[in-house]
Amino acid sequence: MERLKHYQGILLEELKSQQLQEKVRSQKAQRTEARNRQAMFKERLKNQGLSASVQKERNKQFLQQETIRQKEESHKLQQKQEQELQKFKEHLEETCRELVQIQEEKMRTLQDQETKKIQRLDAEHRMESEQWQERLRLSKENLDTEFASRQQQIIGSGKQKYKGMERCTSWFSPS
């Protein structure tokens, strides 16, 4: 965003520079045109055969009108340049807003992708955990069954030994 603003600042300065050059060229062209128009006007006055005082008065009026015309042209150019500059600034602001919107959309998309990835990994972890718990439960049941079976065997063999011992003791007992 910072780079964009820097680049836009450069573009804005270039536009201002171009407008300044245009203004200087326009003023120079106006002066040249004014001199040419004044020379043509003086020539027409001479051809009309008017007195010097009348020619001087009309030339004075012409210069006043020419000054007004040049000011109006300068004012029009200034307004045109101000509007152009304003439109350009608005365009730059719109570009910034669009970029921010695009970045926000990318961020939301990235967040959604990361959320889905985390949910998928969490589901995989839960499933693995459940599988391990099931395996452990089955192993425990198998061990419990085996333990109970061995315990029964031990108890059973102990009773057989005890019964055998009873027989042995009964041989020695006076009955």
From TrEMBL:
<dbReference type="InterPro" id="IPR022165">
    <property type="entry name" value="PKK"/>
</dbReference>
<keyword id="KW-0175">Coiled coil</keyword>
<dbReference type="Pfam" id="PF12474">
    <property type="entry name" value="PKK"/>
</dbReference>
<protein>
    <recommendedName>
        <fullName>non-specific serine/threonine protein kinase</fullName>
        <ecNumber>2.7.11.1</ecNumber>
    </recommendedName>
</protein>
<feature type="coiled-coil region">
    <location>
        <begin position="78"/>
        <end position="105"/>
    </location>
</feature>
<dbReference type="GO" id="GO:0004674">
    <property type="term" value="F:protein serine/threonine kinase activity"/>
</dbReference>
<keyword id="KW-0418">Kinase</keyword>
<keyword id="KW-0723">Serine/threonine-protein kinase</keyword>
<dbReference type="InterPro" id="IPR051585">
    <property type="entry name" value="STE20_Ser/Thr_Kinases"/>
</dbReference>
<keyword id="KW-0808">Transferase</keyword>
<keyword id="KW-0597">Phosphoprotein</keyword>
<comment type="similarity">
    <text>Belongs to the protein kinase superfamily. STE Ser/Thr protein kinase family. STE20 subfamily.</text>
</comment>
